[in-house]
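Re: the request from the purification team.
They wanted to know what the chain is likely to look like in 3D before they choose a buffer screen. I agreed to run a prediction and write the result into the notebook, where they can find it.
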Amino acid sequence: MAHCSFQHVQLKAIVSVVPPTKVDCSASKEFFASEQLYERNKTVLGLGDRYVVTKEDQLTSLDLGYAAVKSLQAKANLDLSKIEGLVVATSTPAFLNPADSFVLQGRLGLPASTLCYTLTGLACNGFLLSLINVASLIESGALKNCLLVCTDTSSTDSSEHNIHHFSFADSASAILLEYTPDVHDMNFVTHTQGELYENFLAPAGGKHIPIEADIVNRVESDPKGNEWRLWDDLSDGMQVLTFVTRSMPKIMQELLELTQLTYDDVDMVAVNQSNALYIRTVGQITKVPRNKLCSAQTFTRYSNTASGSVPLVICDQMQGLGQCLFMSSGIGLVAAAGRINLQGVQNFGVEVMPEIPKKRSRAEEIEYWVQRFHQING
């Protein structure tokens, strides 16, 4: 397992933003065999509200990320002209090319000297794994500060006629990290099993199976009527659970040994908010005391927002805390654990996106890019 330790990187400020459209879990009732089964799952999984992008508002992860950075700028009195790095973590990029970080740099008006890159496909591990990258840049002296933007529109990854659709929602978090001369320990442990990839992927949409006419109208259904398309997520829940139960105790034990901490030494242990059952399971197998384990209230309020899941827990449950431990598992292929000191962090909580930017309709957007093609190619 990989061990990473840093001493001079400080998380300075954080804010999370969700889109304005709020829906509740009752829309998933039709995919359960009975009302009784729905109510049972609602309780066990902690189903509640979701904030999602819609076809009408045309919002993307890029728009949510922009809104999060602008909110952080206003609340923390942040001078964007002094930003040296911008890292975007997303599994739902607005563009395949160029990277969303480049486009976001332009929209924000960050200096041309800003180091920008995007990390994709990390799912719920987007925050912790990206944080390793950002901390490495700052600790090495390459950057004095960096904006980390964790943003996903996960509700768009599954068919609306699929029960799993109602476990996912959308958010963006903007996090400012800076170099500090004081010792400010930050530690991580990771465990990856990429050989399991066939159990957790969206088969189509990349270069492996491009979206072409032969799959556009192909829809598969299970006996309960849940629909699936080749570009939707394909996830084997039992394999995910097996990976989690094997990996999480190991990485948490190694993190405790690496940091020479016990659970008594930390204020809270936060787990990515896949659902309430997942949080309880991870807490039990890693032997976290119940009074130190984050609750599932963030999932119930906002659902699973992939790379924004852990930052949402920080914004929703962890104001005013100090030493904290974190665990996350990304699509059953990677598990990560980290120690982060939140003391002194400007934590601005979670806010609903105040306004939707005026955008071209889908038809207008398509026509715009067709015209750009003809302009470029004469």
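For the purification team: Residues 253 and 286 are 8 Å apart (CA to CA).
Please add any questions underneath this entry.
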